[in-house]
Every structure is written in C-alpha cells, then in structure tokens.
Amino acid sequence: MKYRNKLFSYKKPYDLKATNELLKKAILENCLYQYKNCKEYRKILDGMGFDPQKIGTNSDIPDNILEKIPVIPTMLFKRMKMFSMPKWKIPIKATSSGTSGKNVSEIGFDAGALICGLKMVLKVGGERKVFSLTPCHYVIMGYQPHKSNKTAVAKTAFGATLFTPCLSRTYILKYKNGKYLPDFDGIISRLKTLERSSFTCRFMGFPAYTYFLLKIMEEKGIKIKLPKGSKILLGGGWKQFYAEQPDKSEFYRLSKEILGINEENIIEFFGAVEHPVLYCDCKKHHFHVPIYSRVLIRDVDTLKPLGYGETGLVNLITPMVKATPVLSVMTDDLGILHKGEECGCGNSSPYLEIVGRVAPDSIKTCAAGAAEMLEKIM
What b/e readout covers 37-65, taking b as 16+ CB neighbours within 10 angstroms? Predict the structure, then answer.
C-alpha cells in the first residue's frame, strides 16, 4: 500500500488539488487488493460488472473512478462480516454503536491503517490545536470501558483523552447489571469539584448527552464556572436522539451560561466505524473534507452523483483500511456538499453539511434496496 502511505504522510491535510492524483492511485491500489483478497467484495464487483483490473495503469486512472467504484451501504456491514485478511493478522476490530452484538458493523483495522490513522489525527487535530502538554481532567459523555464494549466510538473517546496528559476520566454511561445507564447526577457532582481545580476540563463524547446535561442543569438552576481554557469536544453523532438535536446557537448559549465555555472552545468531530477518517470542524464549525477522503452526494432514488448545494445520501470514500472493504460506503445520512470558498474560514476544501438521517425501516431508499441486492449477489 505504498500510495496509501504516501497520501497519509503528506504534510498539508486539506490540500486536495495537490494530492488528487495520489488519492486516485491509492483508491485503485486499495480496490485491487480488496478484489483479490475478499471473496464477498469480489462477488459484489463481479455482480455489478466492475473489474478494477481493467481500469488501466496508475498513470491514466480516469477522473470518475470515485463515482464508478460500486458503493456499499453501511447497513450491509451490519448484516454480514467481510474481511480481506486472516483475522489473526487484524490487531483491532471495532463495531458501530451498540454493545449487544445485533445490527452492528464489525470492521477490521490492519496495522498500516492504524499508523495512517495516527498520522491523520496528528495533522487534522493539530489544525484545531486540540493537542496540549498541559494536564487536564476529562468528562466523557460516553461509555465507561467494559470488556463487552468493542464499539469504535468508545475507543475513539478514550483515544481523545490522550490529546493532553490526563489527570482523571469521569464517564456518564456506567455499566450496571448488563447494560449502560446515564449518570447525570454523578457528572454534575463531579463538575462542582472540577470547578475548584487548577487544571482545565475537557468534555468528550456524544453531543446528545452533553446537551441533555446542560438542559438538566439549566432546569435545576445549576451553573458551573470551569477553569479558563476548558473545552467541549463532540463526537459520535446524535444517533437515536436526532429529533432532539438543537440549533447550534442554542447549544453554544447553554455551554456559555452553564459551564462558562465559549463557542471558540467547542470542537466537533464527524466520522463512522465504516469510514474512520477524522473530520474536524473549522472555526466556522464546518466539516471540510481532508485529503484522506472524498465525499460524494448521491440522489436518494437513483444514486447518481449530485452537484454542490444539492441534498442526497452521503457517499464516503477512503483508501485508509486494508483489512475490510470499506473503500466506498453509503451512509444513511442526508447531506450537502458545499464549495470551500463559501465557508469563510480560509480553507478551500469542500465542506460537508449533515442535514438529517434516513430511517431505513420507514423510508425505502435506493441505498436500502442496494443493500438487499448486494446480499442476493453474494
């Protein structure tokens, strides 16, 4: 995977123009590997009449290769497991949110992908200055570690506590009697203690639980003044609480009034276990696309690529992972891709706006039908 390594070693994380050819080479390299080493993926490509061996040499890869590679809906990974190397060669396997083992994706991460991921995090996180040598306390609005929990979001939240020297970790989702339960009172009690600390505090985890905490504290008339420089890092999405998602300005207001944390100290991340690329918002709170991936917006009914400013299903593409064929995946998110110049932060890379989520059980999209069709092919 020499082209993958070159791509993830590139110094500028948002220079898409300079790395476009390198990305195409890395995409073809990954597709050929998956085709040769994953029988399920090969059946999918053969069934859809796509043979990566006929694309051409690395010097004349067509510009439309990204939209031509068959897209795999993330829901297919929730129904079946696909690996491109023996399991004993895969150091880490992670699942999507949920610990019951039902209706979750299981994705393998090879050693090369982990090294690439580290390089990516250092560059993308460095742009937003999330790293510091100053110790701090962490309040994790997510899962308390437990041997039964193999979710990627739990691993990611813990990994984010390594951005600075960690003094303590306090979790809101406590594992009791075989299930996770939120402990809002415990978090509020801990915040009252941290208010008197000489060190800053960082929130990390699900935005929904962070928002619910702020609303509970507002209703109870509880206000905390956390040390200057404290931050809120949001990741993991809203999941089943999508309907409760507030306007961002309301979230910023509550953070300022309840915790004393200003908007500039609120940073949001976007990603998925089936697409482990780190998207970190800019100072204008937009998710610019880094060089390690590309984003296509596809029509809900036809799956044809749409232009800037049009709403459709989000197709995420990356050559990062070798152990599982997650080269091009379709999420159940509805999104819009905007030109980078529309942001105003100075980053020219296009940015992704997530505007909603398709409910596969109630809305029969082309993506849902595609997952069923691919199952039949295999």
Answer: bbebbbebbeeeeeebeebeeeeebeeeb
Q: SS3 string of 26-57? A: HHHHHHHHHHHHCHHHHHHHHHCCCCHHHCCC
Q: Which two tokens stand for residue 247?
A: 């306007």
Closest to 343 in 3D by CA, of 269, 287, 298: 287
> 224 and 258 in contact (C-beta within 8 Å)?
yes
DSSP, collapsed to helix, strand or coil, labels residue 166 as strand
For 223, phi and psi rounded to 5 degrees?
-125, 135
Retrieve residue 214's tokens.
């702020």
Residues 6+ apart with CB under 8 A from 250: none
In tens, the pLDDT along 198-253 reads 999 999 888 888 999 999 999 999 999 999 999 999 887 666 655 566 788 899 99
- Looking at residue 226, the DSSP 8-state letter turns out to be P
Contact 105, 275 (CB under 8 A): no
* Degrees, nearest 5: CA angle 8-205-343: 60
Distance spanning both ends of the chain, measured CA to CA: 27
Residue type, 283: K
CA distances from 288 to 60, 263, 291, 340 (A): 28, 18, 10, 7
The amino acid at 133 = L
Rounded CA gap, 283 and 149, in Å? 33
* Three-class DSSP category at 139: strand
Cα separation, 14 vs 345, whole angstroms: 13
- Tallying the residues shown for the chain, one arrives at 378
Question: Is there a contact between 13 and 290 (Cβ–Cβ < 8 Å)?
Answer: yes
Return the axis-axis angle of helices 39-47 and 16-37, rounded to nearest 10°. Answer: 110
Q: What are the tokens at 215?
A: 């609303």
The pLDDT tens digits for 130-146 are 999 999 999 998 888 88
Is this model's pTM higher than 0.70 or not? yes
**238 with 208: CB under 8 angstroms?**
yes
Q: Which two tokens stand for residue 365?
A: 């999209």
Beta pairing partners, 126: none
